Amino acid sequence: MGGNALAGFRECLDKDLIHSIVSKFGKSGGRISSAPVIYGSNFKPILDFTKFPVYSKSAPINRVILRDALADPVYDAGKLQYNKEFERYEIIQDKGRELVRVWFKDGSSDTGDILIGADGSHSRINKQLGLDNIRPLKTHTNLVLKTDLPTSRYLKMTPELHQTPVLTFADNKSMYFCAYLPERRPDEGEQSKPEVDFDDTLSSCMFGLFVPTNTVPEGLATMPAEQQWEFCRSSVKDWAPQL
Fold it and tell me: Domain of life here (predicted)?
């Protein structure tokens, strides 16, 4: 999350809620805000966006933690409903005003001033609008994984992977890696200094690999995890071992 998100928070949220969200931001190389670094397949840096003052830097945060924090005040106000599936919307007139009415799969509806469609790449709102601007890429397949990042795994990683998000482009493929390392809160009961300064009960990492579709074995999505990982490893076997 970057500066624009924080500006929106300051306009809409109280200080306590903003503090609770910001306290969950992850750190990269000891900094809250960072930017990606592009490496070659030999693990030599090509372009370091952290060196550009005008590049918009951002901080990682767990999306579930952020969603719950933003949803809490809406829920407390009795304005949040779960288990509703969007089906369609229509624009209606009400005393000279335009309102939007949303219909759900169970036949219920709701009416408001504005409808925000945040329903992803298979957006029904996008389809109803007729934008047709979300097209699947048939030439490449994107593999994405998010997993916990315990201290034991963190300590075995290449230090550069701790410091910034990493991007690599080579051989008609691309790879992305980002670690989420929320700040550790001091525990008065601790007798010794912990090995790391982040909270490894919440830390996680995200890995993405973008490969030509014609190299992906049929049925990869249903294969055991070890076979899927073996495909990922083989796809970058000629890249530097740090990657």
Answer: Eukaryota
Residues contacting residue 90 through CB under 8 Å, at least 6 positions apart: 100, 101, 103
User: What are the backbone dihedrals phi and psi of residue 211, each rounded to the nearest 5 degrees, phi first?
Assistant: -130, 155
Which residue ranges make up each domain of the chain? Answer: 26-59+136-243, 81-129
The amino acid present at 221, given as its one-letter code, is: A
Residues 45-85 have pLDDT tens digits of: 999 988 888 777 788 888 888 899 999 888 999 888 888 99
> In the β-sheet with 37-39, what is the strand arrangement from edge to edge?
45-48, 37-39, 166-170, 173-180, 204-212, 140-148
Q: Which fold has domain 26-59+136-243?
A: D-Amino Acid Oxidase; Chain A, domain 2 (3.30.9)
- φ, ψ for residue 209 (rounded to 5)? -130, 125
How many angstroms separate the CA atoms of 23 and 163, rounded?
A: 18
